[in-house]
Fold this sequence. Notes:
The structure holds 2 protein chains of 2 kinds. By secondary structure, chain A is an all-alpha fold. Chain A has 7 helices and no strands. The longest helix of chain A has 27 residues, at 103-129. Chain B is an alpha+beta fold. Chain B contains 4 helices and 12 strands. In chain B, the strands form 2 sheets. Chain B has a 6-stranded antiparallel β-barrel with strand order 1-2-5-4-3-12. The chains are: A mainly alpha, B alpha+beta. Chains A and B meet through helix 2, helix 3, helix 4, helix 5 and helix 6 of A and helix 1, helix 2, helix 3 and strand 1 of B.
Amino acid sequence: MRLISHLNAYYIYNLLLIFIFSIIVNSNNLFSLIYISLYCLFHLLIIYLGIYYYRRSLYFIYFLYGLGLDILWLNEIGPHLMVFMFMLFFFHLSTKYWYNFNSYKIYIIILILQFIIINLEIMFSYLLFQYSISLNYFLQIFFISALVSLPAFLFFSYIDKFK
Amino acid sequence: MIKNNRIKVSSRNKSFSGFFISLLFLLTFILIFFNKTDNFLASSIKNFGIDVISPITRVISSPITITKNIRLTFNNFRNLESQNLKLREEVIRLKKWQTLAIKNSRENRVFKRLLNSTSHNIDIIKTASVVNQSPGIYTKLITINAGLNYNVNKDMAVINEKGLVGKTIYSSNLNSKVLLINDPSSSIPVKTLSDNSYSILKGSSDGKFLVSSFTQDNKMPRLGDLLVTSGNAKIFPRDILVAKVIRINQDNFIAIPYVDFNNLNYVQVVKSK
């Protein structure tokens, strides 16, 4: 309990990110639905952290996650690394325009951003390495993202209280 | 004076972090470029990723693995009685087969001696365990815990007790990546056991089946035909069980692989003798 009181939300999010990353790169025999949910949650967390807890050290953290995902999933370097880096840069430039939006609008924006980011990853993996993704997976990601997002945001807003 | 110093330090920090971010972006592009050109640096980073990051993430995700194993053990205990009955029946059936197999094996040895033929047995390089399986959203890969340290190189066939699993596409010192046969980018030259007609298979987009991408003389196999490796690609040794034909379309056929890709625990890296 004492340890938690010393942790602030930024560190908790980073611990969560490491944990989810470790699970999704070691998905041996995990149920596909649980796996895809964690994959969506990982992206939601990356976006959330980038928007609400932007700091320069995140560039290095996202660089490592992008590289890790690319190497451990694709055995190539490119799609995740590129998308994560540019995503953070985009957040840095654009978040000042979102400050006046209410929570509902932000929620929708984050969801849309997630679909765009996953699509960009798919697109880059196809353009760079000809990896195609089945429509079935894409639809699963789409629906599970929508399902997971609300409880995830409620959980995130609980973590946000740890200042 | 102090205020001036503080401003100087903060502006120096800002310019340093700006430089560091630019360096990270530059490194991103360099890595992508080097990866496309198969540069040594990209290979070293991949080696590092597979050999170092994988074990760390395995330790972090160990609570999930332990929970999963406990659940599996509990399920096994629950089904103990029914499994036991099934196994007894299986043992009786297998004993009959064993007698037949021993008889056939003796006959086979005698015939080989008579014909003075050499067998084309496969050479087992290493039996390895699966340490990681990619989720299959982009590619269908597994990582095994044998690499260059056990002479496991690129483009070696990987099998298990059920049949062909895939081929190695990358080897680091301690681990190797295996592209599964159900990946859409894989290409497996096969022949039918019944009439030796040749074709090439690749994975379907959902990874459940294998689809023919080429059939020699457009000669389609029959429903239920067994497909084994033809040995044409020089990667896969001949006569390893691959799949069974389950549907024949106008311009291709669909087969179901023998290997259960959701339950890969141990595999063998092999090459032709």
